[in-house]
Amino acid sequence: MEPGTLSTFLKRGAIWGFIVLELVFFSVAGEFLSLSDKAFMDVDNMLLLFKQSAPIGIIAIGMTIIMINGNIDLSVGATFALSAVVLLDSMTWSVFAGLGDGVIPIAWGLALMTGVLLGALNGLIVWKTGVDAFIVTLGSMLGYRGLVFMYHGEQPTSHLNWTLVDFAEAQFLGLHTATWFLIAVTAAGWYLTNRSVHGRNAYAIGDNRTAAINAGIRVGPHMMINFMIIGFLAALSAVVFYSESGSVNPNDGELYELWVITAVVLGGTKLTGGAGSVLSTLGGVLAIQLLRKGLGHIGADTETVNLVIGLILIAVLFLDRQLNLKGREALRI
Amino acid sequence: MTEQLPALRLEGIVKTFPGVRALDKVSFSVMPGEVHALMGENGAGKSTLMKVLGGIHQPDEGSIIVEETPVVMTSPLQAKGKGIVFIHQELSLAEELTVAENIYLGELPKKSFGRVDWKTLFDRTDAILAKLKVGFTARTRVGDLSIANQQMVEIARALTVDAKAVIFDEPTASLTDAEKVVLFDVIADLKTHGVGIIYISHRMEEIFRITDRISVLRDGQYRGTLTTAETGEDEITQLMIGRKLDLSRNASDHEIGDVALEVRNLSCGRLFKDISFEVRRGEVVGFYGLVGAGRTEIAETLFGLREPSRGQILLDGEETVIHSPADAIAKGISLVPEDRKGQGLVLGMNCRDNMTLPQVGDLKAGPFVAEGAEIAIFDQYRDKLDIRTPGWRQLVGNLSGGNQQKIVIGKWLSMHPKVLIVDEPTRGIDVGSKSEIHNLIRDLARQGYAVIVISSEMPEVLHVSDRIVAMYSGEIIRSFTSKEVTEDNLIQAISGITPDKAA
Question: Which domains are assigned to chain A?
Answer without folding.
Answer: 38-318 (1.10.3470)
